[in-house]
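Researcher: Let's do a round of design. I'm pasting the structure tokens now; please hold your answer until I've finished.
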């Protein structure tokens, strides 16, 4: 990795100027090349298939497993069979633990309207009604709730993030799958085409409502009602980018951190363990959350991408590392789509004053990404 802060003099100016000019000319953080297009589209095809499974399972957990404290079959989507159980025990399955890692990262870092609503008096009232309905006829849990009233309330908050992230991914996976379809049809030929496709999808669903309702004994209970006016882009998409792409959490078992020596910042906003920052080598090791995602995606690689990997470096031996490297390239395309959609003026503007404002906005993002893998994907 070559972070911006480690590059000096003319090289610094060259890198910054090249990327800024690309953004101002409706291009991307990732340089355009046929190989990059093939890699990004291929990995997003695989990712889209995995995301569909993640999204459906998270939504199912939030609805079927509401306040089930020991959900032994929470990954089964209501379909419990012996063959499925055997595949689960044999680990021949989608690793939904990674989806939960992302959910907990969003919940911990917060941000957006969902986070604010979950601290409101209205949420507490709605959650209390659902909790009371769920605990009816269960004196033991009623006693626990009386002694520790914040325990189940915090659990309901967690289920809201299960639902919120599931709804977010329900928007994202069709974007990635249709991108692959358009590539196969010859409609996607460049990295700017990729970014434009993703950006259009984000904008199209920007105002999609985010709500959450559960069924308890035949009755419906609003947890996140439509009146909260939460929507896809500001209340799930942006917090997701912040929590998962940028901040993340340190991976247990990878590096020993001394919190007392402030090797982990006290300020969550300064965390830099997200998907855009992770080193692909340790990420390819067992027990690291993103490795679970790489393992899932390897099952759904398009033949052309799998063949490309076979002829690169160590072939199949470091497949997960290659997948991680390509995945980071694709996430820089998604990040480009997000930041250009959020720029103060349209990304296509040619008005000097508007371009100057956009330039300042993009420069701030480059500083934010100074220690990310951005500089490693410029070739």
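Researcher: That's everything. Go ahead.
Model: Designed sequence:
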């Amino acid at each position: 990795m070559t972070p911006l802060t480690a590059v000096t003099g003319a090289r610094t100016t060259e890198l910054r100027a090249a990327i800024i000019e690309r953004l101002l000319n409706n291009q991307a953080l990732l340089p355009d090349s046929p190989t990059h297009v093939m890699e990004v589209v291929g990995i997003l095809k695989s990712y889209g298939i995995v995301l569909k499974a993640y999204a459906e399972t998270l939504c199912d957990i939030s609805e079927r497993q509401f306040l089930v404290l020991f959900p032994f079959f929470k990954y089964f989507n209501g379909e419990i069979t012996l063959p499925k159980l055997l595949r689960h025990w044999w680990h021949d399955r989608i690793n939904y633990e990674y989806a939960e890692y992302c959910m907990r990262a969003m919940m911990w870092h917060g941000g957006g309207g969902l986070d604010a609503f979950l601290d409101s008096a209205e949420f507490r009232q709605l959650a209390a009604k659902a909790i009371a309905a769920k605990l009816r006829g269960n004196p033991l849990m009623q006693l626990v709730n009386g002694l520790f009233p914040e325990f189940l309330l915090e659990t309901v908050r967690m289920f809201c993030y299960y639902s919120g992230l599931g709804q977010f991914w329900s928007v994202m996976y069709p974007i990635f799958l249709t991108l692959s379809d358009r590539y196969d049809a010859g409609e996607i030929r460049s990295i700017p085409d990729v970014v434009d496709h993703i950006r259009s999808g984000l904008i199209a669903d920007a105002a999609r409502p985010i709500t959450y309702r559960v069924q308890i004994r035949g009755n419906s209970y609003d947890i996140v009602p439509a009146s909260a006016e939460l929507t896809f882009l500001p209340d799930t998409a942006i917090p997701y980018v912040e929590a998962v792409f940028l901040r993340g959490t340190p991976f247990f078992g990878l590096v020993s951190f001394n919190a007392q020596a402030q090797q982990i910042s006290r300020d969550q906003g300064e965390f830099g363990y997200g998907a855009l920052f992770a080193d692909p080598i340790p990420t390819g090791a067992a027990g690291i959350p993103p490795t679970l995602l790489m393992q899932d995606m390897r099952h759904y690689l398009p033949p052309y991408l799998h063949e490309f990997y076979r002829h690169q470096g160590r072939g199949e031996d470091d497949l997960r590392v290659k997948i991680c490297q390509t995945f980071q390239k694709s996430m820089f395309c998604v990040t480009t789509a997000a930041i250009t959609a959020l720029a103060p003026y349209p990304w296509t503007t040619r008005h000097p004053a508007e371009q100057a404002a956009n330039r300042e906005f993009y420069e701030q993002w480059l500083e934010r990404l100074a220690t990310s893998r951005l500089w490693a994907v410029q070739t």
